[in-house]
Amino acid sequence: MTMSGASKIWARLVRALSKKSIEKPTPIQRFAIPLILKGEDAVARAKTGSGKTLAYLLPVLQKLFADSPSKSNLILVPTRELCQQVYLEVTSLIELCRVQLKVVQLRSTMSASELKTYLAGLPDIVVSTPACMQTCLKNGSLQAKALQESLSFLVLDEADLLLSYGYEDDIIALTAYVPKSCQCLLMSATARLQATTPDRMASATTTAALASVHLLGPPTHVDPLDRGFVKFGPLPQPPLPDRFQSEVDEGGCYGEIITHTHSPTRDGDGELCDSEDSILDAELYDSENSILEAVAKKLMDRGLPSENSGSREGRDGRLEDQQVPSFDVIGPPCSPDMSKETEEEALLDDVEEVDSIEEVNKAVVARVTSQDVIEN
Ligand SMILES: Nc1ncnc2c1ncn2[C@@H]1O[C@H](COP(=O)(O)OP(=O)(O)OP(=O)(O)O)[C@@H](O)[C@H]1O
């Protein structure tokens, strides 16, 4: 499908949103939607109630509408209640779009035969807890091969909770079935993470980052002005995260950036270093008995690209053989001699220009078309 075709689908989604009285994207949606539509993996943090659910649901639906044959998408949430909440959000949007998609929510209370029925033919969207997915894989309700062949998006919603509720093992086990072509998104609430104790925070964030390293591969470069999203490029070696950075905008809207860089010499380039960084650094470097090595090993075993051997295969061929830009922001590239302040102003000016979901879409279409990366 061409992007103009995709635009028509967007109109349908925009109409559906308008029926829910949702006219303008929230900041996290402004940043997330274009990047996710471009095929980026993302780690997004923004405070509770900032619209993170739609930030990933809209691109997931958009791609689902455009994909033929249809792909499967997995949304992992920490609790049954959230499972129900996300399920209702998806089904109401789909209903308003007047399209037919199979969406299921899984519960651990379901019998194996119920689970099997729900998962027959692999639904378009599965909302589940990680534990329940593991059960399905173990009892054969879900065929690992089917998942590997069709998974288009893996979303870890409320990743901070997912990873502090003891789901780490389930998530790590699940990553073995995530194809390299799968787009992975981690969404979490900064406020909630900050409200927890330093130890828990370090542990959750580290695990989130590790999961993302495992699932996504770390980014090659990150710009400190990038608000809330990180582009993941080719996987350098060794695949171990060295450092996190965090940045919170004035209104706390975009939350933090998680980055994984591999060269300590990149640190201190005017990027923020706060106490949280130190905690995280300590946690990361002290990886002896952490899951870090296990994840790194799994990553290597999976044969993900090493050094700069190129981007991941298969994602519609869009990233193939491309020079992956070092980072992605909404806005034109800044000239090298532009001061930081001017750069920031340019970025924010550009964001201000995009003030409706339709406009975001137009902007994305323009950007994506100009890069000539989406073919079908
Ligand atoms: N662009 C928007 N305009 C108006 N309302 C919106 C917009 N996006 C989402 N909402 C509404 O805001 C409410 C909160 O959104 P949502 O649950 O996605 O927040 P969240 O960031 O995921 O919060 P949490 O971290 O608690 O899950 C929902 O009722 C949702 O329908």
From TrEMBL:
Residue ranges of domain Helicase ATP-binding in the record: 33-191
Transmembrane segments: none
EC number: 3.6.4.13
GO molecular function: ATP binding; hydrolase activity; RNA binding; RNA helicase activity
Root EC class: hydrolase
Comp. bias (Basic and acidic residues): 310-321
Written domain comment of the UniProt record: The Q motif is unique to and characteristic of the DEAD box family of RNA helicases and controls ATP binding and hydrolysis.
Protein name: ATP-dependent RNA helicase
Organism: Salvia splendens
Organism ancestry: Eukaryota, Viridiplantae, Streptophyta, Embryophyta, Tracheophyta
